[in-house]
What does this fold into?
Amino acid sequence: MVSEPPTRVVVADDSALMRRIISSALARAGVDVVAEAADGDEALAACEHHRPDALMLDLSMPGLDGIGVLRALRRAGGRPLPVIVVSAFSPAQGARAVDALAEGAFDLVAKPRIGESLDGFAETLVRKLRAATDAGPNTAKPTPPVAPASRAIRSSVTRAVLIATSTGGPKALAAVLPKLPSRLGLGTLIVQHMPPGFTRSLAARLDQSSQLTVREASGGEMLDPSVALLAPGGRHLRLAAGGRVTLSDEPEVGALRPRADLMIRDAAQVYGERTLLVVMTGMGNDGLDGAAEIKRRGGRILVEAQSTCTVYGMPRAVQEAALADAAVPLNELPEAIAAEAAA
It folds into this structure.
C-alpha cells in the first residue's frame, strides 16, 4: 500500500516565535513545512521555489504585507495556491482579514492569545489546512449521486430568511446580499463561522454594497424586513418567542460558536412554515439538524449548488439527507431567495 505524500506548506510570519509555534503544530500533524518566511517577499520566493500545497500567511509583515502577497499570487496566475491567513485580531486586523478573504484567502485562523492553550489553535490550524488542500484548485469535488432538488418557487407566504455558511462564506455573501431587495421577507439572520473580531468588519463591508442594512447583531433586535443581522463571532445567535434576537455565551457546539443549528431551530419554532433556510458553502454539517426541524415544520430550504461551492460540505449534508427543496448556483441564489421569501 502506497502512503500519500505529506502536505507541503510554507509558513510566513515576521515573528520567529510564531513561525516556530505554527511549524511545530503542523509538523506534529505530519505536515512537511518546506520553508519559513519573515516577510512577504520571502514568502513569494519560497512559494516559487518549493511549489507548496498551501501557504500559512500573516497579514502584518514588513515590506510586502499579507494582502500584497495575496495580490501577487493572483497576478502570477498558474496553479491556485490555498492560503490560510493566521492573524491577530483587533478592529483594524479584522477589517484587513476580511480584505484578505476578498483577495482570495481560503480561510482564517486566530493567533493564540497570551495564556490560551495552543492545542485548540493547532487543531483548528490543521483542520482548516486539510479542508483547503482537499478542496484543491477545482472546488467542486465528485460526490455520490443524490436525488435532484426541485426548483425554487415564488411563495405566497412571507418568510424569515436564515443563512448558514462557513468556509468561502464571506465571498459568497458578497455575491448574494448586494443583489437582494431592500426589504426581504420578515427579516434576515446570518451565521457565518468566523472568530471573534472579524464579523463586525464583514457586516460593515456587506452593508456598504447592499440595499439591505447589514450589521452585526448586538441582541435585543426584532426581525426587520430591511435588516440582515450577522451573528457575532464567538457568540451564539438565538431567537426568542416573538422574533426577538438574543446572544448566548453557551459552550461551543461541535467546536462552533456561533452554531447555525441553534438559530435555525429557534426560528423554526417561532415561525414554522414561515421560514426559509439557505445553506451555502462551508465544511462540516452545521445546518443539518436545523434543516430537519425546518422541514418538519413546513418551511423551505435552498442549498448552494456544488458547482459554485468553495467547500461542498454543509450544502451536501442537507441535500444528501433529502431535505433541500432546491440546489441553486450562487449567481441564481439572490433571485431564488427573493422569490421564496415573498419579498
In short: The chain has a mean pLDDT of 91. The longest strand covers residues 32-37.
